[in-house]
Amino acid sequence: MGRKRGPRVKHGLLRGGLGRLGWVTALGSLAFACFVRADIASIVAALAFPVSVWCALGLRADDASGEVSDHYVDEESFDWKEMLSGNLVHPVRRSSNWMIGIGVLALAIALCRWHFGWGALV
Fold this sequence. Notes:
The chain is mostly helical. The protein has one domain. It has helices at residues 22-35, 38-65, 80-84, 95-116; strands spanning 8-10, 13-15, 71-73, 92-94. It is flat.
């Protein structure tokens, strides 16, 4: 019997590509952090951050088992100095790291807005 593929929850983690839903929570919390009242934005960011981490862990598990790729090659980050020095190794990035980073940024912005009484950022 082969491995089960497709969207599912396995060992408490979102598997089969469901971890990509973390982008919705991370970017949504960032939008809330910038455009919504600070107290509501803080609550939303505090609730969305663990969900983004949970989704990122699912993506990591998918990548480790060869189901869904979590990493990508950022070829646009090369500059001419790297090329001249012979550094032709492609820097590998992870979507899960970006999800967590955006979640942390959203939480920091929302909490700073709430703590310091800042208005919306637009």
